[in-house]
Amino acid sequence: MLTHLLVVLVISAASCLQSSFVFKHHDNSEVVKELTRIHHECLSITRLYDLNHTSVRGQPLVVIEFSGNPGVHEPLEPEFKYVANMHGDETLGRELLLKLADELCYSFRAGDPETARLIDTTRIHIMPSMNPDGWDAATKAKFDVSSYLTYFTQLTQSTGRENAHGVDLNRDFPDLQRKMHLMLRRSKDSAIHHLFDGDTGRAIQPETQALIEWITSIPFVLSANFHGGALVANYPFDDTNDGSRRQYTPSPDEAVFQQLARVYADNHPQMHLGVSCGFVSDNFTSTGGITNGAAWYKVTGGMQDFNYLASNSLDLTIEVGCEKYPPASELAEEWENNKSPLMEFMWRVHQGIKGFVINALTREPINEAEISVLSGSEGYDLKLPDRAVTTTKLGEFWRILPPGNFTLRVTAAGYETRIIKVRIPEFDKQRGAAREDITLQPKSATGSPKPGVVPTDFSQ
Predict the structure, then answer these.
(1) What average pLDDT is seen over the chain?
(2) Can 16-350 and 353-440 be said to share one CATH topology?
(3) What's the pLDDT score for residue 458?
(4) Which of 184, 208, 310, 395 is least surrounded by CB atoms within 10 angstroms?
(5) Mean local confidence (pLDDT), 260-265
């Protein structure tokens, strides 16, 4: 009788939970208000923060974090991020991420075990708007009659795609691909990872600077940014090797990028069909709704390539719909279309291999050790050298890989190089990434390794 009563109480409590989220185009103050509400409703698993730079017009760049221990990087817990509204007139991604934050909070409070496990094992960062000034301009142009008429009479007026300085933020990042090719011309053995040295080479926008500092200060493993005007999952490289307008330009991680893109496209009811938005170049039927960025059209100075060449993170650009600023009446349906892709893509941060790299003698973590793929599944035998991932100051590494057998090379300054073979199993949410802790012998070291275990109690 008591057990039955407890079950009834649990069901009743869950049924009383109702989200107050309303599908609409939230203005910038309403975005902050919604994120604040979500934070207060899920205080134990969220943190609300803004980046160190505001937009041109002084608006905050707000992020909500979900984690079992908000505000703390826990050892071997991967970091994940979603960013939207980089182009201010592309608004669907902004509303999808706002609803995603609401959904994570609601599902956690309702006791959904899968949501609870995702939050407990992942540090998730969600930024609904990178370009709040652009959103203001786009909304004014769309709904203010006088501005709408002015737009057609003055073609120079921004529609909100750019920021308040009229700069396209997805062309404003340092061109690391050019730097990569200059290095490879000098030596084909050049390391093509973490190419950003802090020098942007020119003045950049505050929104771009904020994202650069964010990307390079947190050890993100996987991320995506959301655009509109097409329906496709786009993966690096975005820029072409020879400067041509369109040329298929694969990265060393071509195989895993294709797989990750398919995770999003295949879970979307229309994207995997290769729906065209009316442009000749938008035919993605043969690829199942995914595309190499440069094969579609070149983008120089984009955030996607910057993520890949400046950090450990694999980043995709998801085009979520033909209409950049869809009617509010369509937002609920678009949420249903994207809910599963958004969730399944987040889970893939746990795909592949992870572990610590440590000193074989002292058992201390090794910072900036490099983990490279020498050989493995089809797609990793490219002309480019592998793009290595590096360890954090805790000695952690994550490497998203498809299933198969791989040969890895692990190097660090002052240590003997190790070659190891690993087997990556099929992805499983319960199992997560394969664990492989790696010890490196200091050069010219004598004696036997000290007994001990891989440290797991570091704090950052």
Answers:
(1) 89
(2) no
(3) 35
(4) 184
(5) 98
- Integer Cα distance of 420 and 407 in angstroms: 6
Active site residues: 319
Give 425-453 pLDDT, tens digit per residue: 999 999 999 999 999 999 985 555 554 44
Question: What tokens does 8 get?
Answer: 């009834």
The DSSP call for residue 432 is -
- Is 16-350 assigned to CATH 3.40.630.10? yes
Query: Residue 45 is which amino acid?
Result: I
What predicted TM-score, i.e. pTM, was given to this entire model? 0.91
- The closest alpha carbon to 424, from 394, 454, 401, belongs to 401
Please, which pLDDT band fits residue 185 given cuts at 50, 70 and 90? confident
Phi, psi (degrees; rounded to nearest 5) at 190: -60, 145
Q: Which long-range contacts (CB under 8 A, 24 or more apart) does 420-427 make?
A: 422/353, 424/352, 424/353, 427/348, 427/350, 427/351, 427/403
Q: What's the confidence (pLDDT) of residue 3?
A: 40
DSSP 205-254: -HHHHHHHHHHHHS-EEEEEEEE-SEEEEEES--S-SS--SS-----TTH
Report how far residue 458's alpha carbon sits from residue 316's, in angstroms, rounded to the nearest whole number: 31
The two tokens of residue 443 are 């050069």
Residue 24, helix vs strand vs coil:
coil
Confidence class for position 383, pLDDT limits 50, 70, 90: low
The average pLDDT across 184-200 equals 88
Q: Could you tell me the two tokens for 75?
A: 């050892």
Domain ranges of the chain: 16-350, 353-440
- Pairing relation of β-strands 434-435 and 353-359? parallel
Distances (CA, A) of 421 to 107, 230, 383: 40, 41, 22
